[in-house]
Amino acid sequence: MHKKSLRALMVSCAMLCAGAGVAQAQSISVWSRQTDESLSVLKALTDAFTAETGIKVETFNTGVDFEQRLARAAAGRTLPDIVLNDTTAMGQMRQMGILEPIDPAKITGSQDVSQSAWDGAKASDGSLYSVPISAQSFAMFIRKDWREKLGMPVPKTWDDVRKLAEAFTTKDPDGNGKADTFGMAIPGSTTRGYASWFISSFIWQAGGDYVKQVPDGFVPTLNTPQVAQALTYVRGMICDKFAQPGAINATTGDTLPTFRSGQTGIFISGPYHIPQLDAEPGKDVVEVEMMPAGPGGIASLAEGTSAFLLKSSKDHDAANKFFSFLISPKGQEIAMAQGSGRTPIVRLPVNSKVDVNAIRQDPRWMVFKETFDKSSHYMPPIPNWTAVRTLTGEGFNSILAKCDADVPTELEALNKQVAKELSGQDVLSASYK
Question: Which residues does UniProt assign to the signal peptide (predicted)?
């Protein structure tokens, strides 16, 4: 009897332990680099996933110090299963050694994701460490009421934008009799490389680039006339006082309020700010226009949000189901948050079967889609782009802050610093001299 009881107890324990394992497998943890404006959107997304699959999702959401929190979690072995983050964060996360490769064949619907989105999510060696879930380009938000009051045309070129910025600064567009308005909201801060992020579109509009990719790596190309022209143009906005005061130290978190409050009249950003700007200063006074054409034509930075699988994940099957839901038409539409007034997680859908126009029913969104389809540029697939963005952000900030500095000379020095960084990442081409 004793042996039978012991055997029965062991069988019961095995069944309970197996059951506990199954129960544990039905829960995944997801960290998301989003602001509080997207918190309800993330909850709607995860609730729908749980309702469809039975897999519960524990979430953590923050838009502040996300990278530092990840690093602390890695050190403390408390990382989540999945991270939703900027696609460009891949290099930094790979260097931390926390990413697990992605196999699209195990993700239902992966064939419906646009090739451009997959290409933008690739590492420098062509490997995949993330699933793209959202894409976006940039456009100009302009105070339409100011522009029309001053009789100015919709800006199409660099020259048009500069003239409009000057008029917004000098001709009292709000009619209050005070010299308290400025042309362009510029985030020139070194924080998170904002200066580099902002100027990137102008570099491509000038026909320049950060680097040139060649068979054996990358060659830095910041010491070109095209890049100098872009930096000179943006610096002119600041030095001629057509940008808001404090532009040198401003982040996008600082520039958004200047546009909403009526201090600045041109704000370059992505479609995620449409709901906030509809609320203030108001949909009727703001227009969305395509980025201006520079000497090299129209161009815009392309960005995306990706879902990353971490090595800490214990249930890849559950993770792949979550990835599948994120890129499905249902998941994409929920994350687009249409009509919610909240900042969407999915700006432009990556699923080619999702019709942006049918869901948004707003021609402003089509400005971003057309720009993404025809004129967008992803950042170069350098192993750790974050390091280069930080380096160039500091260099560009220094140039913007010195109105009398020789831009080509400054860029030559910065180009050498980028070459050193590329060498440290083992991707500097032997052709670099």
Answer: 1-25
Q: Does one domain contain both 287 and 243?
A: yes
Ramachandran quadrant class, 337 (left: phi over 0; alpha: psi -120 to 50; beta: rest): left
Last residue of a domain, one of 340, 355, 377: 377
List, for residues 199-237, the tens digit of each pLDDT value. Answer: 999 999 999 999 999 999 999 999 999 999 999 999 999
371 plus 387 within the same structural domain: no
Closest CA to 281 of 173, 142, 168: 142
Q: Which domain holds residue 364?
A: 27-136+303-377
The amino acid at 227: V
Burial 275-291, CB ≥16 within 10 A → b, else e: bbbeeebeeebbbbbbb
Provide the domain count of the chain. 2
Would you put residue 274 in left (φ > 0), alpha (ψ -120 to 50) or beta? alpha
Looking at the structure, tell me whether residues 215 and 341 fall in a common domain.
no
Q: Going by C-beta distance under 8 Å and a sequence separation of 6 or more, which residues neighbour residue 65?
A: none
Token pair 């959202």 is found at: 134
Main-chain dihedrals φ then ψ at residue 54, nearest 5 degrees: 85, -5
CA distance 372 to 137: 5
Close Cβ partners of 324 (under 8 Å, ≥ 6 residues apart): 107, 108, 109, 110
Percentages of the chain per state (helix, strand, coil), in multiples of 5: 50, 20, 30
| Residues 77-117 pLDDT 10s | 999 999 999 998 998 899 899 999 999 999 999 999 999 89
Averages of pLDDT over each 10 residues, the chain, 433 residues: 42 40 69 87 97 97 88 95 94 92 97 93 89 97 98 98 98 98 98 96 98 96 98 98 98 96 98 93 98 98 96 96 98 94 92 94 95 94 92 98 98 98 97 93
